[in-house]
Design brief:
This is 2-polyprenyl-6-methoxyphenol hydroxylase-like FAD-dependent oxidoreductase. GO terms for molecular function: FAD binding; monooxygenase activity. Keywords: Monooxygenase, Oxidoreductase. This protein is an alpha/beta fold. The protein contains 13 helices and 19 strands. A hairpin with a 3-residue loop joins β14 (about 185-190) and β15 (about 195-200).
């Protein structure tokens, strides 16, 4: 089966969907609200499941050229600098770290010319059973399928899932930044009220994120950099140096939210993808990775099923249990790593775990999430 699709959103998930559709012989138009396609944010890591998707999309080599191996899952420390677990130099890291903009560009470059329309705001999504249409600021487009990859505040979800709960604040907030410091191996520092993540990036940079608790969303400070520094005062190096080396206006402060489980990701000929379907906290590093998985599973279903409706039923059945379980796990992990009450038990458990057992758990096939393999994409 081949056809024509409209993809709403040109973030990582939307672009991956467009690349996957192209690989099975579909055509697509990607509608992006921003005047220039790009990615908001700082750094990220991708685990083996996501890297396999990038390979299946034909961009794995390009992605690895802009990614940097990170040992963050192997180097765990306390705020005073003591190591709870320590990566061995010879162990192959399971994760690759990226600046979000770098991975976004890899995907954007793989989308066929002319498919992405910028400065286009979606206002309506309609369908009559045999086709679907998207109303937007420049008119209306019709297609066989609509893929809504328009993020946690999805317009399509609001229009077609009107009873779905709004995104939920998880009682946590984060400061993010990128500093011109090279040579860091990656690490996670567990403090009493939060954690500090470090990933190395390409071109001599390092990404950092400080995640902690918050009573309510929307609280902002005159200087996000100064507030992050204040909250981590006395923590071990290179944490103070990373914050200090980050430009004042480059520190991002974001509140952490996710979505309660939806009963379905499909409405007629419309499929939710990525954060529009299952936005999750960052604590398992799976937000973008699950969006990539969505894209390849959707494309494989479209290539193999006899109808769009049958393909979307398969997509929903395959993706909803996995993504919702991952989101629940991320929410639980986030509570454990930012709970003062759980801090001592967590750090004691990690410190007492045999290093060989810890390394086994963070190996490329060390957990069920990372072991997932994508379907093959074949042209119809």
């Amino acid at each position: 089966m081949t056809g024509r699709a409209i993809v709403i959103g040109a973030g990582i998930g939307g672009l991956a969907a467009a690349v996957a559709l192209d690989r099975i012989g579909w055509r697509a138009t990607v509608l992006e609200r921003a005047s220039e396609p790009g990615e908001i944010g700082a750094g990220m890591s991708q685990s083996p499941n996501a890297l396999r998707v990038l390979d299946e999309l034909g961009v794995g080599e390009q992605a690895r050229r802009v990614g940097v191996p990170t040992r963050a899952t192997g180097n765990l420390r306390t705020a005073d600098g003591r190591h709870l677990q320590r990566a061995r130099p010879g162990d192959p890291p399971a994760l690759l770290a990226f600046h979000r903009a770098d991975l976004h560009k890899v995907l954007l470059d793989a989308v066929p010319d002319g498919w992405v329309r910028t400065a286009t705001t979606v206002t309506a999504v309609r369908q009559d059973g045999a086709s679907a249409a998207v109303g937007h600021s420049g008119g209306e487009l019709g297609a066989d399928l609509v893929v809504a990859a328009d993020g946690i505040n999805s317009t399509a979800r609001r229009l077609l899932w009107p009873d779905a709960p709004a995104p939920r604040f998880l009682g946590r907030t984060a400061w993010l930044g990128v500093a011109p410091i090279e040579g860091l191996p990656g690490s996670v520092t567990l403090g009493r009220d939060g954690y500090f993540l470090i990933h190395p990036l390409s071109r001599g940079r390092a990404y950092w994120a400080y995640v902690t608790t918050a009573d309510r969303p929307g609280v902002r400070y005159e200087s996000g950099k100064a507030e992050a520094a204040r909250r981590t005062r006395g923590w071990h190096e290179p944490i103070p140096a990373l914050i200090e080396a980050t430009a004042d206006d480059a520190v991002i402060h974001t509140d952490i939210r996710d979505l309660d489980p939806l009963p379905t990701y499909v409405n007629g000929r419309v499929a939710l993808l990525g954060d529009a379907a299952h936005a999750m906290s960052p604590d398992r590093g799976q937000g973008a990775g699950q969006s990539l998985e969505d894209a390849v599973v959707l494309a494989a279903a479209l290539a193999e099923a006899p109808t769009v409706e049958a393909a979307l039923r398969r997509y929903d059945a395959e993706r909803r249990p996995r993504t919702q379980a991952t989101a629940r796990g991320a929410r639980a992990d986030g509570h454990r790593t930012t709970s003062r009450a759980a801090h001592r038990a967590l750090t004691t458990m990690i410190r007492l775990m045999p290093a060989s057992l810890w390394r086994k758990g963070i190996a490329p096939d060390g957990n069920p999430t990372w072991r997932w393999r994508p379907p093959r994409l074949r042209r119809s």
